[in-house]
């Protein structure tokens, strides 16, 4: 019972922090490759998550998050090149 409660708390905490990034992924997906105006705010939010989240600040979680961000940036560039 205790481990289920811990896992549920971790999941709720992770969702709460990840929803703060949601406002960045829409503009990042629809931006041109010159998306630099979104990057500083996004990185500040990722840093805030790393510093304040009791669960999400592991290297595994952060690596996964940066991988998703990088993949989104690559997809945005691919889309831009295919449309041009």
TrEMBL record:
Domain Dynein heavy chain tail: 3-82
A GO CC term assigned to this protein in UniProt: axonemal dynein complex
A molecular-function term among this protein's GO annotations: dynein intermediate chain binding
Gene Ontology annotations of biological process type: microtubule-based movement
Name assigned to this protein: DYH5 protein
Species this protein is from: Cinclus mexicanus
């Amino acid at each position: 019972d205790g481990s289920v409660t811990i896992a549920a708390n971790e999941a709720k905490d992770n969702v709460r922090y990840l929803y703060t990034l949601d406002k960045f992924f829409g503009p990042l997906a629809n931006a041109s490759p010159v998306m630099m105006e979104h990057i500083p705010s996004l990185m500040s939010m990722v840093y805030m998550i790393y510093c304040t989240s009791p669960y999400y600040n592991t290297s595994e979680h952060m690596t996964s998050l940066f991988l998703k961000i990088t993949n989104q940036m690559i997809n945005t560039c691919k889309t831009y090149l295919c449309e041009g």
